[in-house]
Amino acid sequence: MTYDDSNIFARILRGEIPCKKVYEDDFALAFHDIQPRAPVHVLVIPKGPYVCMADFTAQAPESLIAGYFRAVGAVARQLGLEDSGYRLLVNTGGDAHQEVAHLHVHIFGGRKLGPMLAKS
Ligand code: 5GP
Predict the structure, then answer these.
(1) Do residues 15 and 24 lie in contact, with contact meaning Cβ atoms separated by under 8 Å?
(2) 94 CB near ligand 1 (under 6 Å)
(3) Which helix (H) or strand (E) holds 63?
(4) Range of the domain at 39
(5) What per-residue confidence (pLDDT) applies to 21?
(6) Percent of residues, the chain, with pLDDT higher than 90
(7) Residue 79 covered by a domain
(8) What CATH number does the domain containing 44 carry?
(9) What are the start-end ranges of the H helices in 14-61?
(10) What's the mean per-residue pLDDT of the chain?
(11) Does any ligand 1 atom lie closer than 6 A to the CB of residue 91?
(12) Mutation test residue for ligand 1: of 14, 20, 31, 43, the one with most atoms within 8 Å of CB
């Protein structure tokens, strides 16, 4: 799986384009989605060249996998979502309609989110 470092999240990681940052540590950067689908809609990306969840879980070092998932939990906590609840979403590949080819976890919250998927 080839990582293209011209993708928009790579550019955000390099500081080439701005984001509304909510969290950063050695493993992850979190920022508000530019087109929020819920009162809280934050993206958490790993600091490394991983296209998607398949690529990340196959290739990333364990320290980054652990650090990244801890960061996802920390971001949700920092956003105040633990008591009310929240939803994580990771689109992976074509059927899931992944648009940006740098792994990202969506965190949604701030309202009742309804059923997991629309019925097709
Ligand atoms: P995907 O469909 O790949 O899971 O989600 C990509 C997400 O990235 C979308 O929710 C979209 O609104 C968001 N997005 C795309 N470009 C930008 C950007 O330049 N800045 C931010 N903050 N979010 C973006």
Answers:
(1) no
(2) no
(3) helix 62-78
(4) 8-109
(5) 98
(6) 95
(7) yes
(8) 3.30.428.10
(9) 53-59
(10) 97
(11) yes
(12) 43
